Amino acid sequence: MSSIKLGSKANAFQRKGQAWFCTTGLPSDIIVQVDGMSFHLHKFPLLSRSGVMEKLIAEASGEEDGCVINLPDILGGAKTFELVAKFCYRVKFELNAASVVYLQIAAEQLEMTEDYGEGNLVSQTEIFLDKVVLQNWQDSLRALQECDGVLSHAEEVFSTTTRLIESLANKASTDPNLFGWPAAEDSRPLQSPGGSVLWNGIKTGARLKTASSDWWYEEISNLRLPLYKRLISAMESRGIKQEIIVGSLTSYAKKYLPGLNRRQSTDDSNSHIGSVSSGSILSDEDQKLLLEELDHLLPTQKGLISTKILFGLLRTAMILRASPTCISNLERRIGMQLDQATLEDLLMPNFSYTMETLYNVECVHRILEHFLAENQVTGGASPGSVDDVHLIGSPSLMSITTAAKLIDGYLAEVAPDNNLKLAKFKSLAAAVPDYARPLDDGLYRAIDIYLKSHSWLADADKENLCMLIDCQKLSLEACTHAALNERLPLRIIVQVLFFEQLQLRTSVAGSFLVSNNIDGSPQIVSDLLASSDGGWDTAVRENQVLKLGMDSMRMHVSELEKECSNMRHEIAKLGMGKGTSTWGSISKKLGFTMKSQMCSAKEGAISKQKHEGGKFDKTEDKFGKYNKTNHY
């Protein structure tokens, strides 16, 4: 911290208890009382420098009990008046950034201007403030901290607070590497023209470390909130990027809101607003006021603030019972970027007095609504429609799909809560648009967990809840699980089996379509041979390719046959438990006689393929040398 020496005489002041004595050899003829401290001084040094002291001494001189003057309104109290007295006696003392603000205000209060002596205290403090303090980042910041208790007085005459804030804002908006901020300027090593550090005149290869854009975050966080707000506003007016401003606000919030970071270190949790030496921690009311002020300062642009930080602020706001407006604003900010959140972020405990549920499901529902309102796709129409095919794979749809997967995971986590009402669970599950779920496996898993934990639900309620599941969007694993799930209503199981059979029929029909194409392969091959240069090596290679295709088709048909057999076996077991007549009729409706048709069709296709491929088998034997030289 920069400082200058004022005065030239040796220290002639001694303290004895609550009194200061000037040991100049002459008895004191005036007593000045400031904040319970008595200063035994002499009239002439005081009245020769201060217009106020001249008037007060003249008024008190006629009193019988001696000249006693009381100064109750001196800012800075006895500590500041001690420096004033030393200045009047020309005793050496140090003027620095920590004392200049109070000393300047006290000098103005006592009228210590040039009218009462050249180089008086008002001018001395102004010169030091202008030439030294305002030119230095650390000194400007230290002086601004001292302005906190005297904001109105510091602005009245000298506009000290405004000047300090403007100085800091200018320095923060300037490249710190140009001036060596924020490192201690006086202790920086010399630097050669080439950039290397000079140590004892020897050139080394080391270089000065460049400062990052966040070098001032921690330092300005020591300011109290009113001064911090003014400084941040001044920085914004000078064009500092919003990302940098948000970084400072986040750092400030982490320092003074212990609940914001669950893993906050002990040092951070002991931080406070105000004087660095106060050692106090903010009360809950002060934290709530700080949080509401930060809500006004934070920008509304999407992506500038970390989603985890926003969830931390929201969680803290709920704990501190912040205003509904503050909580709503935080929910809206989170809703704008819900797709960037994690499941851990969503699992916010319910801090209400009723403790109805373990987690705050209503809050997550509101966040989801904000997200959907922000990411509306063509007025809510499904992107799967003909008019909206171009939207598939778009960033907006991808973010909605990511958020839907996150909500399904959240539903699975909160489903075991016995206090979670069916209406809340169903409302959150139904809030996700149908087009946002490519598969309903996650939703099925969440509903299954809810049914398991709420086994007392009526059959009508279970069926109503399960109607949210689109059976056509279940994977094979989910269909298999659902077909054997005793917790599901019978109607849902039948739907699952029905759509599973439709998928199987479609797959088999596609397989036979490929088989028919291969069945006509001799004509295709002959056309290929006719269009070729007549080389027999090409014919042999085509023959081998067709053989590989036939083998692949055999394996595919075999797998389909095995799946049909397994499904028939499982359904037969279900039929034995539920009644053979009912499940027999279902099996007939679902077409389980398909196996024989599949097998006969498969055998016909394979025999025909063998018959057609026999020509190439003979060709291959006749020209066996090509198999040796041109084998793939």
In short:
The protein is of the alpha/beta class and 632 residues long. The chain has helices at residues 43-47, 51-60, 77-88, 100-109, 121-131, 137-146, 151-156, 160-172, 217-220, 225-237, 242-256, 266-269, 284-297, 307-319, 324-336, 343-346, 361-374, 395-414, 422-431, 441-453, 459-466, 476-483, 490-519, 521-531, 536-578, 580-590, 594-622, 624-629; strands at 3-6, 13-16, 19-22, 30-34, 37-41, 68-70, 93-96, 196-199, 202-207.
> Poorly predicted ranges (pLDDT <50, ≥5 residues)?
183-209, 263-279, 377-392, 528-536, 578-632
CATH architecture of the largest domain: 2-Layer Sandwich
Question: What fraction of residues sit in β-strands?
Answer: 5-15%
Please work out how many helical segments DSSP would assign: 28
- CATH third-level topology of the largest domain: Potassium Channel Kv1.1, Chain A
Shape: elongated
| Cα-atom radius of gyration | 42 Å
Decide which structural class fits the backbone: alpha/beta
On the 0 to 100 scale, the average pLDDT is 76
Helical proportion, percent range: 55-70%
Largest beta-sheet details: 5 strands, mixed
Output the CATH class name of the largest domain: Alpha Beta
Instruction: Give the domain tally.
Output: 4
